[in-house]
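Quick review question:
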């Protein structure tokens, strides 16, 4: 079993978590996003409907 070490965790892959991951990537910061469901679940299944 391989052991990976990471210093930066983002909890939640919603709008805020995905944006944070983008910024960390641009800054060259290795990180891991932990999401208990699917990435951007709210956008996928709970989007507001506009007329
Ligand atoms: C019903 C509803 C409909 C909406 N529709 C729209 C829309 O159509 N257009 C729009 O612009 N905005 C909409 N919004 C608003 C928009 O969804 C939110 O403003 C935005 O999603 C907030 O982003 P967030 O990353 O802060 O939270 P969230 O999107 O809620 O993301 C948080 C994530 O963290 C995860 N998480 C939480 N706890 C843990 C844990 N302990 N471990 C791992 N993962 C965890 C959750 O599974 C979730 O994926 C809607 C909101 C609601 C409630």
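Suggested answer, residue by residue:
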């Amino acid at each position: 079993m391989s052991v990976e070490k990471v210093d930066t965790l983002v909890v939640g892959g919603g709008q805020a978590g995905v944006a944070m991951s983008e910024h960390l990537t641009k800054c060259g910061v290795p990180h891991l996003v932990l999401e208990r469901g699917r990435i951007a679940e709210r956008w996928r299944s709970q989007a507001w409907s506009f007329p």
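Why it works: The mean pLDDT is 91. The radius of gyration is 14 Å.
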